[in-house]
Amino acid sequence: MSSDSRRDRSSWNHFDIVLSITHFVGFVTICLNGYFFNTFKNGLGWPIPLNTTGTMDGNTMGIIGKKGDQLHAFLMVLAFIYFQGEALLAYRAYRYDAKMISKLLHTALHCTAIGLAITALVVIIMSTNYTGYNNFTSVHSWIGVCLIAAYLVQFSFGFITYLCPCSPGSHRARLMPVHRAVGVSCFVVACVQCCLGFGNVLLEGQPACFGDLSCKNRIEYVGAFCVLSIILYTLLVLALIIPKPWRREKTPDELNFYSPEEWSKRLGITRPIHGIAEGVFGILIAIAYIPMINLMLEKDHYKMSCYKIMIFLAIVDVLSIVLICPIEGWLAYHGAVYCTYPNLIFLSGMSAQSLWCCSCVTALILVTNRLFDLLSSKASSFLFDGKRTYIVIFLAICYGLYFFFFTRPVLFNSKFHSWQYDPMIYEGRSSEYTNVATIYNNVLVVFATCLMYVVFCIALGSKLKTVSGPSESRNALSFGTFLFPRVPESFRARLMSVHRAVGISCMIISCVQYCLGYQQMIHNKLECFKDLSCKNRTEYIGAIAMLFTILYTLLILAVVTPKPWRREKTVDELK
Fold it and tell me: Does the keyword Transmembrane helix apply (predicted)?
């Protein structure tokens, strides 16, 4: 490997780290500013006339502040710092993916920023009018008006020139450096303007506690950290968008190397049997979810927090099955690769990854709910009582949306019949497509879930040991009853045979699917398997691994299928 190649790989690894830190700092910036502006002086609120609140002297007005000042400041930070920063990052986070995705996301974020900025401008004008002051009498206000005007001109220019191209390609290429320079300048001026606005908020009618640092909730420190977080987020965004090696490159489908059919023929493999089977199987599994969700929606069940979480988890699972299985089956049927249908595969990969991560964190929330119910009723009530369960579910949705918008998606490849981050177009560049955030999710969230289930089992076992007699034993919580609260016995009995048959079928299909996938990998990837010349005798190890998989499956079936070996009810259950 050359030194340039090693340097490029290190550069991409640094990009992933800086991007993850930038998103985290942006989130912290919004949280800090929201807390500060909602706590400082009179908090967030829409401007109201003074005659509705009574007459106030100058000192009181200075302490309380004009109603709406904090809302104006918070909306401006949201618009010109966070949403503008994320809009600039859209062409970096998706630099190797379909250009239209980056373009639409870039436009949507800028539209959001413009809407918030105009709302903030209206708020501060209303607030100033209600208090009898004159508008636009400070340097801060004039810079703000000029910034909004420049931002609107820049957006209009970009919309006409690039999103709805009304000029030739050569003209757009010449104007791109100007568009980029104006965008970066607007972002830097916005940071300076927000810092000036903070100075006005903190210094105008400053409370006496600022002098001896004795304010309630240490709000003076929070304000200082708000300014620092805004500056840090600005610098991190600039560090990502300015370096030339981190700019977006044209994808092969944009360069028109081959037609979609040629891409499939060169890099893909048609799998009609796999495609049809996967599509049908996904639809059947989704249908099987319907009676289970319907049962959990019964009034007696739905009022429990655990059922709300399980219903949400079931909905996420159904969405992932309905969205991904038919699409993956259709792509496998046609032998598609990324460049065959870039937009469809990109959006499907974003959805699949988002739903998977949302499902992971929801499963973690569910076991947390069960564990707190067992160990600490106070903690369980604090987190999950009443509508608080919906807040926790909303956080899980936000977690999934982060992976949808701000991380690289998985991409389908029919040659390996799998979803991978690398589109398999360029050789030796797999490390550039690594998704660090998903790796953390798969390691930390999944590990934490498994660990908490172990703790749950231990805690439940210690609880059951305290049961002293048969009469108490009948009333004791069993593992299944506690983890999945009781459903009607007749309903469970009717579903048991179906549940057992589906479970055995899934086991067999998983074994067959593994063997088929292994065979395809050998046929397509490892030429040394044909003449038994692989390094470290990998071909023998692979053959033994496949044989052990088949043997293990057969042994499991031999144990679970015979009727005499099925579990019998205990004396306690018969009572």
Answer: yes
